[in-house]
Amino acid sequence: MNAFEEYEIGSAVRCQSGRCGDLACVVVDPAAERLTHLIVVARSGTAGRLVPVGLAHADSGGVTLDCDRARFEALEPAIETHFLTVSDAEQRYGHHQGEVAYWPFYGLAPGGAALGMTAMDPVAGPRVELRDRVPAGEVRIRRGEPVSARDGHLGHVRGLVVDPADEAVTHILLDEGHLWGHKRVAIPVGAVTGIGTEAVCVRLTKAQIKDLPPVEVAGLD
Fold first, then answer.
1. pLDDT in tens, 147-175
2. Measuring CA to CA, which residue among 206, 208, 204, 207 is closest to residue 189?
3. Cβ(142)–Cβ(24) under 8 Å?
4. Are 23 and 62 in contact (CB under 8 A)?
5. Average pLDDT, the chain
6. Are 24 and 9 in contact (CB under 8 A)?
7. What does 127-155 look like in DSSP terms, one character per residue?
8. What are phi and psi of 148, to 5 degrees?
9. Among 173, 93, 172, 162, which residue's Cα sits nearest to residue 127?
10. Which helix (H) or strand (E) covers residue 59, if one does?
11. What DSSP letter does each residue of 5-45 carry, written as one string?
12. Is 0.85 topped by the overall pTM?
């Protein structure tokens, strides 16, 4: 039986062409208790990509993707920028700035002028909306999100432990803290009562969590 894989948020992500970014978030289906996607942000600061977990596996060096850089860069962005039309902007914001202000390339003309606008004209940016591309019913988990036990604040999320056979989430990994010293603490997903966008809730007490056994993770002693 293979050891579990640890997806540590913030770790390096490599593709066949070399390093392609960092693991910014993990995306889980809380109903099925499965990891579905990774959100990988390129080091150059470009938009994060939504990576299906079937392309990835975790190891001692971080995360490796079974694709080259070209395929990685062709994956769906995690956030989609949508430029509004004039009518949409007026309907949603009750505001009219002239059609030019909503064009995607507004403001990129030489000297910042656009289609005859003078230096005395008011400068207004385009109306844009950011659409989350995470599938409906699934949630992002970021490093540092709070974890609550039955008797109070427990710590913060460090990552997930996953069974590579079916991508089932088996444990929530906590950051090392003063309660645990240097012990790696992994909470069984069966003890988790809720995974949301703001916190992870656990039905155990701090004392029960302190006595949890270690988890065998591939690449780690």
1. 988 998 888 899 999 998 999 999 999 87
2. 204
3. yes
4. yes
5. 77
6. yes
7. PEEEEE-SPTT-EEEETT-EEEETTEEEE
8. -115, 130
9. 93
10. strand 56-59
11. EEEETT-EEEETTEEEEEEEEEEEETTTTEEEEEEEE-TT-
12. no
Cα Dmax for the chain:
71
CA 136 to chain centre: 14
Structural element, H or E, at residue 82: strand 79-83
Contact indicator for 8, 158 with CB cutoff of 8 Å: yes
Joined tokens for residue 6: 């640890």
Distance CA 84, CA 168 (A): 39
* Neighbouring-strand partners of residue 63: 13, 58
Name the DSSP class of 50. E
φ, ψ for residue 88, nearest 5 deg: -65, -45
- What is the SS3 assignment for 158-205? EEEEEECCCCEEEEEEECCCCCCCCCCCEEEHHHEEEECCCCEEECCC
The residue type found at 165 is A
